[in-house]
Amino acid sequence: MELIFAQPGEERRISRIIGSEKRKKCLMDLGFVEGASVKVLSLVNGSFIVNVMGTRVALDRSLVAHVHVEEAKA
Questions:
Q1: Domain locations along the chain
Q2: C-alpha closest to that of 68 among 11, 23, 17, 25
Q3: Average confidence score pLDDT of the chain
Q4: Band of residue 56 on the pLDDT scale cut at 50, 70, 90
Q5: How far is CA 10 from its chain centroid?
Q6: What are phi and psi for residue 3, nearest 5 degrees?
Q7: Residue 50 CA: distances (Å) to CA of 8, 28, 40, 64, 66
Q8: Does domain 3-71 have CATH number 2.60.200.40?
Q9: Cα–Cα distance between 15 and 71 in angstroms, integer?
């Protein structure tokens, strides 16, 4: 499932990052790596505010679409 389908308050685990190498590197530099926990904090005008690896990050919809997630294991 893509992260764009997660609702505010949901915590997920990153399963993979898709896209060009440049886009993957950009997301990985922000902390979006496979296995990391990500939580959608809010949606503001089509932008996502998420918490990944203890850091709050704002991303537009085009970047969030490249992050695939799965249900976080308890």
A1: 3-71
A2: 17
A3: 93
A4: very high
A5: 11
A6: -60, -25
A7: 9, 14, 4, 10, 14
A8: no
A9: 9
Q: Residue 27: is it exposed, middle or buried by C-beta count within 10 angstroms (0-12/13-18/19+)?
A: buried
C-beta separation of 23 from 45 below 8 A: no
Q: Which helix (H) or strand (E) holds 37?
A: strand 37-44
Asked if 39 contacts 55 with a C-beta cutoff of 8 angstroms, the reply is no
For position 68, what pLDDT does the model report?
A: 97
Q: Which amino acid is at 3?
A: L
Cβ atoms 36, 68 nearer than 8 A = no
Most distant pair of Cα atoms in the chain: their distance: 32
